[in-house]
Input
Amino acid sequence: MKAQTEQRIAVSILFLCTFLVVVPVLVILIIISMKGVSALTVSFLFDMPQNGMTSGGIFPAILGTVYLVVGAIVFAVPLGVLSAIYLVEYAKDTPLSRLIKLAIVNLAGVPSVVYGLFGLGIFVIFFGFGASILSGSLTLGIMILPVIITASREALESVPKTFRIVSLSLGASKWQTIRHSVLPHAIPGILTGTILGLGRAAGETAPILFTVAAFYLPKLPQSVFDQTMALPYHLYVISTQVPGIPEHTRYGTALVLLLLVLLLNLGAIILRYQFRKKKKW
Amino acid sequence: MVKNTVKVSIQSLSIFYDTVQAVKNLTLDIFPNEIFTIIGPANSGKSSLLLTLNRLGEINPSYRKTGTVLLDGENIDTLNVEILRRRVGIVFALPFPLPISIYDNVAYGPRMQGIKKKSILDGIVESALTEAYLWDEVKDRLQSPAMNLSGGQQQRLCIARVLALKPEVIMFDEPTSGLDPISTARVEETLRTLKAHYTIILVTNNVAQAARVGDRTAFLLMGELIELDNTNKLFTAPADKRTDDYITGKFG
Amino acid sequence: MNTAWNIVRKIKEHVIEKVILFSGTTSILFVLLIFVFLLKEGLSIFWMVPLSDFLFAKNWYPISDPPQFGILPLILGSLFVTFGAAVLSVPIGIASALFIAEIAPPKLKEVMKAGIELLAAIPSVVIGFIGMMTLGPLIKDLFNLTTGLTALTGSITLAFMAMPTIVSIAEDAITAVPRSYREAAIAMGATKWQTTWRIVAYAARPGMIAAVMLGIGRVIGETMAVMMVTGNAALIPRSFLQPVRTLTATIAAEMGETVQGGEHYSALFAIGIILFIITFIINGIADLYLHRTRK
Output
């Protein structure tokens, strides 16, 4: 009887803890949605900022984030997928492959602001790209590399071994086997990881602080060597650096960023679900 | 029947997985256009032997072999491995169709050799499927997924897939272990007709099947060759007591 | 007919395989490059300020004349906030993981996991923004302070941000405990709770330690949210109810004002080196524990 009481109390405490984690998430979403939705107008989304950002829209910040994210993906996806192919299909259990795995774990753990310093040191200064979309995209790209590699590895490992054996037994070379019998079946998983990486890149602020982000730049970038505004940095700036910004503009900006990131994540979840449902083996 | 040529010659072959020895110092010859059956209980080294003949065993990192295998007198280790695997095809115990269409499964091998022309591929696919007695059943749905076929059809598809390589030797690793008696009979019939054009190596743990289709039969036990003879002789008057015990079902 | 095609294919494949091998090693290359560039830009501060002074001097006045580069207040700021976040997030996170993995019915489990994934997806600048707008004023009123942006505010915000890492990795570790352990315990008459706590949680310890380490790594490295809610006063902290400034926030807030190659600039890079080394060690340890669970 005593054990039963103990169990009831313990389970209640555990439930309360989980509640404490999950409920604030909903509260955050609700607060931002309620206070931000009034700002969401066509002109807010598609106009230039005016009067030192106190009025007008956030279009350059939205577009800037899209540029940065696309740049990061163009850099990180090919590299990440090839790297995963190496680890899953080629590497044996050698010191080198163990070192690579350790490096990936550490890349995933490097603080985002340290990526910012790195991007400043190597791309902005050493390669002379200046504070530019190119520098920012490359910095973000390296930051999301572990996400892409890990997702691609899981996707490749989930392709049954028999596919490889059958393909090799039919006289295909190793690369033909990977190209025709492994990669096509890993694509949905790789895509899911890519979208998660996109979401991560879109929301990060610290890596772009010193590599690309412009404080107030009411014009659109013309080339990859231009600076640009970006949504997360814009939110930081208007909520801490510039006084007198109307509250609904701040919440509106937060809502746009949140929607962008959550929609990307939702896309990844749906894709993963569809893939699991359709899986043929 | 006098055979004066040897298709596959196995000389002092031993196979290891790490420290475990799967095949022990095996020497035997396989002649062209015969059905050479290999019988023996589980873990007797039958499958390891097949995986050695087309060097598929090498993809397992712990696999190692000593000794020589000759194909038409040439050491297989000196041949291009992709060409070797086309010359020596294999059909596995379970049908493993790739999750693509029937057509693409059969055309897979030829495409990997660089054959791209649709008319040529169409011809190869049709003749391979016909030879595997599957054409009539699937000719109207070549583009549907291979996974939708029944077990027996999938196994014949896998045979067609190998035939499309235009191989010289076809190895069957317990090809009917997962099939019902009717499908089994069809596969065995296929084997008998294929013999005219190919050298067949059939591994089976079904003793009756070896007796039905084999020309010569080898009995392997714990990686050692116990006895090798014409199938009739081996089944009616085995020289070794262990062979007798195995084929009469005293162990296995 | 196909020989020429095959030769071209062979060459192509050879090149592709070299590219794959190179791509495989780029992760090592990037880790090295990060370290090298941090050293390149940051080491020069140590010609001026000895390492022991840099680490243990009490004053961070980078723009006074003469400037003072003692990062002790920043280290303590990071420690305060990290400690506070760990105290809050570790027990709650582990408890949530146990609930989700062992007790929650399947439907509820899916909802809770989705909630936690959602939390992981929210950008840190948004969490910082919300912390600043809602939690800050709350703390200010609750404790009657002049400002609500304090170490405590930072700890609560960061505890929340560490949660997805701790919960998901701990949950994986708990789920990986073999079924037979639970069945044996139940067969011996243990209640569900006794089994969960004494058997399952005990067996999942290495994975839980890894979860905590990675959560702490996340907290130490977190920048934007912490910068927005801790008030950013580079003073030696004496209580959780006063503003503090962390290592990460210092870099983010001050780099914009520095002269490239100057002392202040390289001091900020030196802070980067310290952060890099700390997270390297933490992640290394976590990885060790993770591998122990898998075996």
